[in-house]
C-alpha cells in the first residue's frame, strides 16, 4: 500500500497548500497585511507568494524523488499523482502573483 | 503467494447451491424482509426506493413546468410553488441520486470484485432504513403542507427561525441529516469492501475500473458529507436553542452556512458523476468488444477529480462579495477540473473508436450521455469564469447547466447501467422496442426542455420565480420547455414500464448475455444471494470461471460451518488474510434506525425533554450490535484451499471492523476539521468580534485539565486492556479505562456548566459545540470500554482474541486528540 500513499502525496500537498494559501489570504485581509510594507513590497502578497513558491518547491521534490518500486502501472500512477498535484498547485494558486489581495 | 493457490476438488454444483442458499437467503414472509441484511436485497431496495423518489421528484418537476408554461401561470400559488421547487431539488439530490449510487455500489461491488457480501451487512441495512425513514419524514411534510420552502440549499437567514417559523426548515435539516448518516454508513461499507474483500490475487491495479470509481466516490462522501452534517447541526441548534452561529448581530455570519453547504454541495456533483462514469467504463468496452483504452490514465483522472472537486466550492458563491484573488483561486480550479473529465471522455471515445460498437440499448443511453454531458461540461467551464458567472448567476442558464450535468452525467449512465444489469437482476431478457422508444422520448424531451433554457437564462429569467407577467419574450421559450418536460416524463414512464415488463414477461436470459469478462457475470442468473458458491482466486479471475466456481473449485467453497463466511484480503496486493464471519438475518438494523428516527422526530416535535429516552434507545441498540462481535473460544484455522488455511477474524487485529473504524474516523475527523474551519472563519471574518469578555475561572481551568488527564488515562488503559488481555490485569485495565472515561465526562460537564450562556455570542455557542463534540465521543468511547470490559470478564479475550479493545483504542486516541484541541482552543480564545 506504500505506493498508494506515494500516489496520494502530490494531490494531498496541493490540498494542504491550497488551504494554507486561502487561509493566509483571509487572515491577511483581516489583519490588514496589505497595508504593511516590507522591503520587497506589501506583506500580504509577499507572504502568499513565498508560501506558494515553497509549496511548488516541495512538488518539485516529489516529482524528482517520489517513485514507486512496484509494477509499471503503479509507477505510472505515482508519477501521475505527483504531476496532478504540481499542476493543480501551479494553476489554481498562480493568482497570488497577478491580482491585488483584498479588493 | 496468491498465484499458487491450488483449486479445491469439484463437487456437485446443485448440492453446493442448496447448501449456500440455506445459509445466505433472506427469511420468508414480510417479517423476513425486515430482517434481511444481504447486499443484493439491500442494494436493490436502495435502487427501487430511490426510483420511487425520482418519480415523485419528477411529478414535482412537471408541476413546476406546468406553472411556468405561461407568464401568468395560475396553477400554483407562490407558497406552494416555493415548497415544490425546494422539494424537487432536495428529493432529486438527497433521496434519488445519492441513494441510487449507494444502491448500485452495494448491489454490484461484491459481485464485480468477487466477494459474497459487503464488509458490514448490518450497516448496509441500517443505512437503508435510515434513508427510508428520513425520506418518509421529508415526503410526509409535503403531504401535510409544511414542506421546506427555502430552496434545496437552505440559505440563512431565510431559513432561520425569524424568516421561516414553523417546522418546515427543521424537516429538511433533520431529514437530510438522517439520510446523510445513511450515506456515510454506505461510504464506510464501500471503502472497506473495495480495499479488503476483493478476490484473492486482485491487486489494486488489476481492479475493475468500477472499483476505482466507487472507491473515489466513497472517499469523497466520507470527506464531503461531514461539512453539511455539521452545518445542519449548527443551523438546527440555532433554530431550536437560539445558538447564534449565523446571526450577524451576535458574532455569527450567514456566509458560514454557504461555505459549509457548498463544501458538500460541489463535491456532491462529482460524487454523483463518478459512479456513473464507472458504469460507462464498464459498459463501453463490453459493447465495443475491446479492452478499455488508458486504464492508468482513467485512474489518474479519477484521482485528479476526487481532489480537485474539493477546490471548487466557492464558485457557487462568486456573487457574495469575496475578494478578487480568492475568486480567482476557485475560478482556476473550476476550469482545471475539466481536464481530468476530458481525459475520461477521450478514453471512452477512443475505446469505441478502437472497437466495433454494438448499438444495443445500454449503448444508446451511453450515446445519450455523450450528447448531454459534454454540453453541460462546456457550460460549466463558462460558469467557472467569474465575469460570465456574475451575469448568469441565479438565472435559468444555471438551471439548464446543472440539468445537463446531472441528467447527462448521472441519469443517462444509470439507465445504461440498469438496462445492462437487468438480466442479472431479473434473470430475463427485455421486451423488444419499448426501451428504445423510452430512450428517444427521454433524449428529445430532455433537450427540448433544457436546451432553450440556456437562452431563457441569457435573456435574464431568474430561477425560482413562479410568474413573469412583465416579460412576454420568455413565454414561448418556457412553453417549449414545458412541452419538452412532458415528453421526457412520458419517456421515463415508458422506461419504468419496460423494466416492469422485463421482470414480469421477459423470456429467461442465458448466462452472461453480453459476453462481458468481469466477475459479476460469473454466476447464475438471477444472481444468487451468496454470489459465488466458491470464491474466485488467481485461477478464476474472470467470467469464464462460472462453472468451476459453481462446482466449488474456487476458494472457501460452500458453508460447511453453517454460517456466512467471507474471505478478507490484503488491501494492496489482494493476498488472502483471514476468514470473516458476517452476520445473518437480523431485525437489529431496523430497530436501530427506529431508535435514531425517534430522536429526530422528538427534535422535530420540539419535545426536547423526551430526547434522553431516544438516546437511551440508541445506546441500547448500539450495545446489541456488539453482541455479535466476539467469540468465547479460540478456533482452528479454516481450510480455504488445499494447503491454505486462514484464521477467523476474531483472532486477527486488522479486522474489517478495525478498517471500518479507521474509515469512519476519517469522516469524523473531517467533521471536526469543518468545525475548526467554522471557528476560524467566524473569528476572522464575521463582524461583531471579539466576543464579550467572560474570563475562565480557576474551577473551569481545573475541570478542563482534569478532563484531559482522565481521557489520557483512559487511552492508556485501553492500550493495556489489549496488551494484557490474556492476564487478569487486562480486565482491571479495562475497568480503569471505563472509570477514567466516566470521570472525564463528568469533568466536561462541570466545565460546560461554568462557561457562558451559548446564546450570548457565536463564540460561546462554538464553545458549546466543541464541548458537545468531546462529550459525544466520550460517550462512544465509554460504550466501547464497557464492551471491552465485558469481553474480558466473559472470557471473550485470550492471547489470540482481542475483543473490542483495538477499536476502543482508536476511539480513545481520537477523543484525546480532538478534546485536547478543543479545550486548548477554549482557553486560547480567552487568552486572545
From TrEMBL, chain A:
Q: Which residues cross the membrane?
A: 47-65, 77-98
Q: Highest taxon of the source?
A: Bacteria
What are the entry keywords? Answer: Membrane, Transmembrane, Transmembrane helix
Keyword Transmembrane, does the record have it? Answer: yes
In its UniProt entry, what is this protein called?
Uncharacterized protein
- Organism phylogeny: Bacteria, Pseudomonadati, Pseudomonadota, Alphaproteobacteria, Rhodobacterales
From TrEMBL, chain B:
Q: Name one GO molecular function term.
A: oxidoreductase activity
Name the Gene Ontology biological process terms.
Answer: electron transport coupled proton transport; oxidative phosphorylation; respiratory electron transport chain
PROSITE patterns annotated for this entry?
COX1, COX1_CUB
What membrane topology is annotated for this entry?
Multi-pass membrane protein
Please state every residue range assigned to the domain named Cytochrome oxidase subunit I profile.
Answer: 18-539
List where in the cell it is found: Cell membrane
GO terms under cellular component: plasma membrane
Q: Give the catalysed reaction(s), semicolon-separated.
A: 4 Fe(II)-[cytochrome c] + O2 + 8 H(+)(in) = 4 Fe(III)-[cytochrome c] + 2 H2O + 4 H(+)(out)
Provide the transmembrane region boundaries.
42-64, 84-108, 128-147, 171-192, 212-235, 269-288, 295-314, 326-354, 366-390, 402-425, 437-459, 479-505, 599-623, 696-718, 730-753, 765-786, 807-828
For this UniProt record, the keywords arranged alphabetically read as follows: Cell membrane, Copper, Electron transport, Heme, Iron, Membrane, Metal-binding, Oxidoreductase, Respiratory chain, Translocase, Transmembrane, Transmembrane helix, Transport
Which Pfam families is this protein grouped with?
Answer: COX1
Q: Copy the pathway line from the protein's UniProt record.
A: Energy metabolism; oxidative phosphorylation
Q: What Gene3D superfamilies is this protein classified in?
A: Cytochrome c oxidase-like, subunit I domain
The enzyme's E.C. designation? 7.1.1.9
Checking InterPro entries in the record gives: Cyt_c_oxase-like_su1_dom, Cyt_c_oxase-like_su1_sf, Cyt_C_Oxase_1, Cyt_c_Oxase_su1_BS, Cyt_c_oxidase_su1_bac
Q: Which family does it belong to?
A: Belongs to the heme-copper respiratory oxidase family.
Name of protein: cytochrome-c oxidase
| Organism taxonomic ancestry | Bacteria, Pseudomonadati, Pseudomonadota, Alphaproteobacteria, Rhodobacterales
Gene transcribed to yield this protein: ctaD
Amino acid at each position: 500500500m506504500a505506493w498508494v500513499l506515494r500516489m496520494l502525496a502530490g494531490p494531498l500537498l496541493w490540498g494542504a497548500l491550497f488551504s494554507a494559501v486561502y487561509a493566509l489570504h483571509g487572515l491577511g485581509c483581516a489583519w490588514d497585511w496589505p497595508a504593511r510594507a516590507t522591503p520587497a513590497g506589501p506583506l500580504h502578497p509577499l507572504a502568499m507568494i513565498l508560501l506558494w513558491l515553497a509549496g511548488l518547491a516541495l512538488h518539485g521534490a516529489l516529482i524528482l524523488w517520489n517513485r514507486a518500486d512496484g509494477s509499471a502501472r503503479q509507477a505510472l500512477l505515482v508519477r501521475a499523482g505527483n504531476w496532478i498535484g504540481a499542476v493543480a498547485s501551479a494553476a489554481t494558486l498562480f493568482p497570488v502573483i497577478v491580482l491585488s489581495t483584498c479588493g | 503467494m496468491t498465484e499458487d493457490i491450488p483449486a479445491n476438488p469439484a463437487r456437485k454444483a446443485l448440492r453446493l447451491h442448496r447448501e449456500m442458499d440455506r445459509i445466505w437467503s433472506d427469511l420468508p414472509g414480510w417479517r423476513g424482509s425486515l430482517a434481511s441484511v444481504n447486499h443484493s436485497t439491500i442494494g436493490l431496495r436502495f435502487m427501487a426506493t430511490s426510483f420511487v423518489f425520482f418519480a415523485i421528484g419528477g411529478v414535482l418537476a412537471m408541476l413546476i413546468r406546468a406553472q411556468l408554461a405561461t407568464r401568468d401561470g395560475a396553477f400554483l400559488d407562490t407558497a406552494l410553488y416555493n415548497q415544490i421547487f425546494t422539494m424537487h431539488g432536495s428529493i432529486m439530490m438527497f433521496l434519488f441520486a445519492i441513494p441510487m449510487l449507494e444502491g448500485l455500489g452495494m448491489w454490484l461491488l461484491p459481485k464485480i470484485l468477487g466477494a459474497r457480501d459487503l464488509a458490514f451487512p448490518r450497516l448496509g441495512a441500517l443505512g437503508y432504513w435510515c434513508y427510508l425513514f428520513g425520506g418518509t419524514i421529508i415526503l410526509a411534510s409535503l403531504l401535510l403542507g409544511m414542506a421546506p420552502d427555502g430552496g434545496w440549499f437552505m440559505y440563512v437567514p431565510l431559513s432561520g427561525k425569524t424568516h421561516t417559523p414553523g417546522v418546515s426548515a427543521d424537516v429538511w435539516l433533520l431529514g437530510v441529516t438522517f439520510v446523510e448518516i445513511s450515506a456515510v454508513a454506505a461510504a464506510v461499507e464501500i471503502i472497506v469492501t473495495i480495499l479488503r474483500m476483493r478476490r484473492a490475487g486482485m491487486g489494486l491495479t488489476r481492479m475493475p475500473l468500477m472499483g476505482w470509481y466507487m472507491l473515489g466516490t466513497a472517499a469523497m462522501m466520507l470527506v464531503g458529507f461531514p461539512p453539511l452534517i455539521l452545518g445542519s447541526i449548527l443551523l438546527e441548534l440555532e433554530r431550536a436553542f437560539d445558538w447564534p452561529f449565523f446571526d450577524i448581530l451576535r458574532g455569527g455570519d450567514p456566509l458560514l452556512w454557504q461555505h459549509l453547504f457548498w463544501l458538500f454541495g460541489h463535491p456532491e456533483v462529482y460524487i454523483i458523476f463518478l459512479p456513473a462514469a464507472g458504469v460507462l467504463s464498464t459498459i463501453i468496452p463490453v459493447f465495443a468488444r475491446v479492452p478499455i483504452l488508458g486504464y492508468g490514465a482513467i485512474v489518474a483522472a479519477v484521482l485528479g477529480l476526487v481532489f480537485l472537486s474539493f477546490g471548487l466550492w466557492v464558485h457557487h458563491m462568486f456573487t457574495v462579495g469575496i475578494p478578487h484573488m480568492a475568486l480567482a483561486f476557485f475560478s482556476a480550479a473550476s476550469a482545471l477540473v475539466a481536464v481530468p473529465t476530458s481525459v475520461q471522455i477521450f478514453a471512452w471515445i477512443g475505446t469505441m473508436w478502437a472497437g466495433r460498437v454494438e448499438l444495443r440499448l445500454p449503448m444508446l443511453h451511453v450515446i445519450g450521455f455523450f450528447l448531454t454531458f459534454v454540453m453541460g461540461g462546456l457550460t460549466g467551464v463558462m460558469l467557472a469564469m467569474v465575469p460570465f458567472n456574475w451575469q448568469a448567476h441565479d438565472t435559468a442558464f444555471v438551471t439548464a447547466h446543472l440539468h445537463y450535468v446531472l441528467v447527462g452525467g448521472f441519469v443517462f449512465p444509470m439507465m445504461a447501467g440498469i438496462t445492462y444489469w437487468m438480466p442479472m437482476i431479473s434473470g430475463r431478457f427485455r421486451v423488444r422496442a419499448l426501451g428504445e422508444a423510452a430512450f428517444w422520448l427521454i433524449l428529445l424531451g430532455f433537450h427540448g426542455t433544457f436546451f432553450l433554457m440556456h437562452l431563457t437564462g441569457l435573456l435574464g429569467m431568474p430561477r425560482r420565480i413562479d410568474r413573469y407577467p412583465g416579460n412576454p419574450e420568455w413565454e414561448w421559450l418556457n412553453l417549449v420547455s414545458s412541452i419538452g418536460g412532458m415528453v421526457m416524463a412520458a419517456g421515463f414512464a415508458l422506461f419504468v414500464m419496460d423494466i416492469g415488463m422485463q421482470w414480469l414477461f421477459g423470456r429467461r436470459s442465458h448466462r452472461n448475455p453480453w459476453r462481458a469478462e468481469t466477475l459479476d457475470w460469473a454466476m447464475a442468473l438471477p444472481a444468487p444471494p451468496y454470489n459465488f458458491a466458491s470464491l474466485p482466486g488467481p485461477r478464476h479471475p474472470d467470467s469464464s470461471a462460472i462453472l468451476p466456481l459453481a462446482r466449488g473449485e474456487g476458494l472457501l467453497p460452500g458453508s460447511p460451518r453453517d454460517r456466512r463466511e467471507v474471505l478478507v484480503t490484503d488491501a494492496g496486493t489482494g493476498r488472502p488474510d483471514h476468514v470473516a464471519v458476517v452476520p445473518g438475518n437480523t431485525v437489529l438494523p431496523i430497530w436501530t434506525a427506529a431508535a435514531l428516527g425517534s430522536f429526530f422526530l422528538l427534535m422535530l416535535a420540539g419535545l426536547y425533554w423526551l430526547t434522553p429516552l431516544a438516546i437511551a434507545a440508541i445506546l441500547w441498540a448500539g450495545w446489541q450490535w456488539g453482541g455479535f462481535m466476539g467469540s468465547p473460544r479460540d478456533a482452528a484455522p479454516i481450510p480455504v484451499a488445499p494447503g491454505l488455511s486462514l484464521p477467523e477474524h476474531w483472532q486477527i487485529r486488522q479486522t474489517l471492523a478495525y478498517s471500518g473504524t479507521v474509515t469512519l474516523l476519517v469522516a469524523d475527523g473531517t467533521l471536526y476539521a469543518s468545525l475548526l474551519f467554522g471557528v476560524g472563519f467566524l473569528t476572522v471574518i464575521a463582524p461583531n468580534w471579539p466576543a464579550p469578555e467572560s474570563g475562565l475561572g480557576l474551577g473551569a481551568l481545573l475541570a478542563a485539565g482534569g478532563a484531559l488527564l482522565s481521557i489520557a488515562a483512559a487511552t492508556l488503559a485501553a492500550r493495556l486492556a489489549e496488551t494484557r488481555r490474556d492476564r487478569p490485569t487486562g480486565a482491571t485495565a479495562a475497568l480503569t479505562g471505563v472509570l477514567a472515561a466516566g470521570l472525564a465526562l463528568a469533568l466536561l460537564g462541570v466545565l460546560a456548566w461554568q462557561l457562558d450562556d451559548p446564546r450570548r455570542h457565536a463564540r460561546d455557542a462554538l464553545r458549546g459545540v466543541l464541548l458537545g463534540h468531546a462529550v459525544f465521543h466520550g460517550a462512544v468511547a465509554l460504550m466501547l470500554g464497557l464492551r471491552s470490559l465485558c469481553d474480558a470478564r466473559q472470557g471473550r479475550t485470550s492471547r489470540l482474541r482481542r475483543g473490542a479493545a483495538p477499536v476502543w483504542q482508536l476511539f480513545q486516541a481520537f477523543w484525546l486528540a480532538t478534546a485536547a484541541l478543543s479545550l486548548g482552543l477554549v482557553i486560547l480564545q480567552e487568552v486572545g
